[in-house]
Amino acid sequence: TTQVKQLSISLQSESLGQGSFTHIFRGSKTDQRDGVTHSTEVLLKVLDANHKNCWESFFEAASLMSQISHKHLLLVYDIMVQEFVKHGALDLYLKKSTSVSVSWKLDVAKQLACALNFLEEKNIAHGNICAKNLLLAREGDPSTDNSPFIKLSDPGISMALLDRIPWVAPEVLNTLEIELECDKWSFGSTLWEIFNNGEAPLQGLDPIHKQQFYEHFSNLPALEWTELADLISQCMQYQPELRPSCRSIIRQLNSLITSDYEILHASDTLPK
Ligand SMILES: N#Cc1ccc(Nc2nc(N)cc(-n3cnc(CCO)c3)n2)cc1
What value does the CA radius of gyration of the chain take, rounded to a whole number of Å? Predict the structure, then answer.
């Protein structure tokens, strides 16, 4: 599990540095290492909102300085600051939660499909779709019919490819290229996770057996709900071009939501 460490940033904004396009904040980085707390004074440079166009040179400067080290060269930390999402990663949330409804899971699946549809329209492949990278901003409350709200996290530094079986699409092991269709495969794998309460697919297999899973064109164990199992197997087809478009995925999810509604409320709709 990802231990969320404390990093305090105090907001003493100085004036804009002379000629630079950043806001300067003073902060301290606290690290717990073997029980000892280390605190380091840090300075945060935040790119000014009106100068987003200079972000390349902003990152270039930072990355250049972080690649080399010398006693007379300033130490620059590799850090990514992102919005803190209230309920954390979805896989852990599902493992901890006992009563998550089917409609809750379908709602989350549809939100992920919408995010993928947006990326597809921008021709951007994410490359690391999995429940661990879905962050839960709002839990949703069944009693007040309040729905959950998820945010797809950054692709992050990808783990070794074999460890990402079965989320990483099979063709990626050969091409090492991430295409749009790869995200469809990963979507299928993530759907499987969501409807198996956060249990990682093939979790017991070692990397060799995971590789054989692809070599034998194997499929994940089918879920009881046939229509949902069909959608997962459509997404997890070994031929990338046969995987459904995001629009088709959303359409199929909508009909699952409707059918789920009918099943759930069948008693209400029986003829009196
Ligand atoms: N207990 C607890 C708790 C933990 C974390 C958060 N919030 C949050 N916000 C983010 N922006 C990213 C993440 N995050 C979590 N795991 C990863 C690595 C896998 O992606 C990223 N967590 C909220 C509650």
Answer: 22
146-170 pLDDT, tens digit per residue, is: 899 999 998 877 788 999 999 999 9
- If one residue of 3, 5, 84, 126 were mutated to test the ligand 1 pocket, choosing by the most ligand atoms within 8 A of its CB, it would be 84
Protein residue closest via CA to atom 20 of ligand 1: 133
The 8-class DSSP code of residue 74 comes to -
Task: Give 71's contacts (C-beta < 8 A, 6+ positions apart).
Answer: none
The values of phi and psi at residue 47, to 5°, are -65, 130
Residues in contact with ligand 1 by the CB-under-6-Å rule are 2, 4, 82-89, 132-133, 135, 153, 156
What is the C-alpha separation between 92 and 134, in angstroms, rounded? 10
Task: Give the Å distance between the CA of 82 and the centre of ligand 1.
Answer: 10
Q: What is the pTM of this model?
A: 0.88
Residue nearest to atom 3 of ligand 1 (CA): 88
Quickly count: other Cβ atoms within 10 Å of residue 136's Cβ: 21
ipTM tops the 0.90 cut: yes
Residue nearest to atom 6 of ligand 1 (CA): 88
CA of 27 to the centre of ligand 1 (A): 21
pLDDT at 33: 78
- Determine contact, residues 132/158, Cβ cutoff 8 Å: no
Instruction: Give distance in angstroms: CA of 135 to centre of ligand 1.
Output: 7
Instruction: Kindly give the distance from the C-alpha atom of residue 148 to the centroid of ligand 1, in angstroms, as a whole number.
Output: 16
Task: Please give the pLDDT value at position 253.
Answer: 98
CA 31, distance to chain mean position in Å, is 25
pLDDT tens for each residue of 173-221: 999 999 999 999 999 999 999 999 999 999 999 999 999 999 999 999 9
Q: Which region among 202-216, 222-236, 251-265 has the lowest average model confidence (pLDDT)?
A: 251-265
